[in-house]
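Protein data:
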Amino acid sequence: MIRVATQIGAATLAVALLLVAAAAAEEAPGPGRAEYVAKLEGICKPRALATRRAVQGMRADLRAERLAIAAAKFSSASRFFAATVREISPLPRPVADRGTLARWFGYLAQEESNLQRIVAVLRSDRPVAFQHASARFVRSGERADSVVLAFGFNYCYFKLSRFE
């Protein structure tokens, strides 16, 4: 009986220590804005450049109605974008900017969804639906940029020129 009570006490102590550690980690100050931006830019830059290479000539493909080829290029861009968002999402955020960054990540999720929609409509050979989906994609990118304008991002910004 004493042995069981000792085990229960030890387990309770361990849980209490874990809760205290989790609370302390949650309250720990995040990085400063400049440090955060530098970290994200280091992640975004290679993928932004890869996206630019992947979609090279995409506008010409669309004009020539080579929709399957354009869909493949947008699909590559979508994968790069999703991987970037997945990598930057869990990084610790500056305490003062957590609300702003939460909104930004919400818009990034919309961008990701819109990119997937573009791929789907191109694969189904629906050029009018592509125009609507691409307009939504551009709008969500512009909204995302407006939220974090003060951060001074370069490669983590939406730039339509990367998709030409």
Q: What stands out?
A: The longest helix spans residues 2-27. Residues 9-25 have pLDDT under 50 and may be disordered. The chain is about 75% helix and 0% strand. The chain has two domains: 1-30, 32-163.
